[in-house]
Design goal:
His_kinase_dom; Sig_transdc_His_kin-like_C; 3 domains; elongated; EC 2.7.13.3; Heat Shock Protein 90; six-stranded mixed sheet; alpha+beta; disordered C terminus; membrane
């Protein structure tokens, strides 16, 4: 049980530190803390208290540890079903106001309060009145499980995380319901010692998910911080480089102009041609570093009210004559107004469309789709190009990484720039790609961050256009 205690509290700490503002993380952390409290009570009862009693007798210390054991045991028995139900309510939000949800959270504590007041006090043989507690705890467990299973992914970019959460949370909780609540109500006690196997399974799934796809946004948060720090370093570096090169190129231009005048006056045509080569090279260097600097400098967002469909259409318009045999499919619901920077978001979308068109090499399907979730709008750009493998997709947001070998003046800054624009708008960017199938890029705008409002309700237009060369 020592392993269960340490593992569950470590998971709770990871969830709470990763995103303390998330109600889902807080409540799942509370579930892990409750489960860990039960393991702590068992460890105290079976290991620490017997050791002190036999090796270092101390009645005061034993009484104190017994009190801690009792509190931890009751916290686990009463807190686990209650915390699990609150987690499910946060994970699969119910369309109720915050005030109603707070009242519901308080009402759900009623059976716990009644059990504490009216049932016999804690004892080591039967910590709680299982035959009474089972009548409210099991419905809490089952209702919470139904809520979790009926959850649908809020957007299409991360559907696998839902099933990771189900696999990590549901088996340990439901097995605990059977071993710690149902069987003891029939007089079969101390079955909780078998919970360790399913808890170990849940911990293993949590760790695998954490280091592969992420778990409740934990890996996403780690990757986001890594990318943010990388972008800050690139921004600082290119700013210094831009300043230094600009000064040196200025000197080159000044002296080559003097040399050019001398060459023209003395009619040295060969020298004049060499000077022109140097001037062209200096202009090229200045242009290249300026373009890099513009893509990496700190963005100043100037938001205003924008019609999303109009923004998408205006961004697509320059590409329509260039599509060749690429079939364009645009599905944008009418009437969505968002408070965002049209220049920056338009440029980010332009980068994604450009990447998709380049990837398909003149033939395929390009899909631009806007989907509405409960809390966000998701703008998807999907192509049927060659796609990327997992290693390439994982590096796609890193500055200066590119799969476009041989493309002139391609710095690998389009996707990092788009990612940075989304971060500035309080949103996020996700990439899914499969070799031989194509790539999907999702721009996810939280409705609250961009003040999204639908001006026309229940009006949706799906358009498909084809451009033939």
């Amino acid at each position: 049980m020592l392993f269960v205690w340490i593992a569950l509290w470590a998971i709770a700490l990871i969830l709470l530190l990763a995103d303390p503002r998330s109600p889902v993380n807080r409540r799942l952390g509370a579930v892990a803390l409750s489960g860990g409290a039960g393991a702590m009570a068992a460890t105290l009862a079976d290991v620490f208290i017997p050791y002190i009693h036999s090796e270092h007798p101390n009645a005061g210390l034993e009484d104190a540890l017994y009190t801690v054991q009792a509190g931890a045991s009751l916290t686990s028995y009463y807190g686990l079903p209650y915390g699990y139900l609150l987690f499910a309510m946060a994970y699969h939000p119910i369309n109720l106001s915050r005030k109603v949800l707070r009242i519901a959270s308080l009402v759900l504590t009623t059976p716990i309060i009644l059990c504490v007041i009216f049932t016999p006090p804690y004892n080591e043989y039967e910590p709680i009145s299982h035959s009474i507690v089972v009548w409210w705890a099991v419905p809490y467990f089952l209702l919470a499980t139904a809520l979790v299973l009926s959850k649908r992914s809020s957007h299409h970019s991360l559907p696998h995380t839902h099933w990771l959460i189900c696999l990590a949370v549901l088996p340990p909780v439901l097995f605990t319901m059977m071993m710690s609540y149902i069987l003891p109500s029939f007089g079969i006690l101390r079955m909780w010692k078998y919970n360790v196997w399913f808890v170990a399974l849940g911990v293993a799934v949590f760790l695998i998910g954490l280091f592969t796809y992420g778990f409740l946004g934990v890996r996403v948060l780690i990757d986001r911080r890594r990318l943010d720090s990388t972008l800050r370093a690139v921004t600082s570096g290119t700013a210094i480089l831009h300043h230094a090169i600009k000064n040196d190129v200025g000197k080159m231009r000044l002296f080559t102009e003097k040399m050019k005048v001398y060459a023209e006056r003395t009619d040295q045509r060969e020298l004049l041609e060499d000077i022109r080569v140097l001037q062209d090279a200096s202009r090229h260097i200045q242009d290249m570093i300026s373009r890099v600097h513009r893509r990496t400098e700190d963005l100043v967002v100037q938001p205003r009210e924008v019609d999303v469909k109009t923004l998408v259409r205006s961004t697509l318009k320059p590409y329509e004559p260039l599509l060749g045999k690429i079939k364009l499919h645009v599905t944008i619901p009418e009437g969505w107004q968002c408070f965002l920077d049209p220049a920056q978001v338009g440029e980010a979308l332009n980068n994604l469309i450009s990447n998709a068109v380049d990837a398909m090499n003149g033939e395929g399907h390009l899909f631009i789709t806007l989907r509405e979730g409960k809390r966000e709008l998701t703008l998807e750009v999907r192509d049927t190009g060659p796609g990327m493998d997992k290693a390439q997709a994982a590096k796609a947001l890193e500055p200066f990484y590119t799969t476009k070998s041989g493309k002139e003046a391609n710095f690998g800054l389009g996707l990092p720039y788009a990612y940075y624009v989304m971060r500035k708008h309080g949103g996020s960017l996700h990439i899914r790609s499969k070799k031989g199938i194509g790539t999907r890029v999702y721009l996810i705008f939280p409705k609250r961050s961009v003040k999204a409002v639908k001006m026309q309700q229940d009006v949706s237009v799906a358009e498909g256009k084809e451009a033939h060369g």
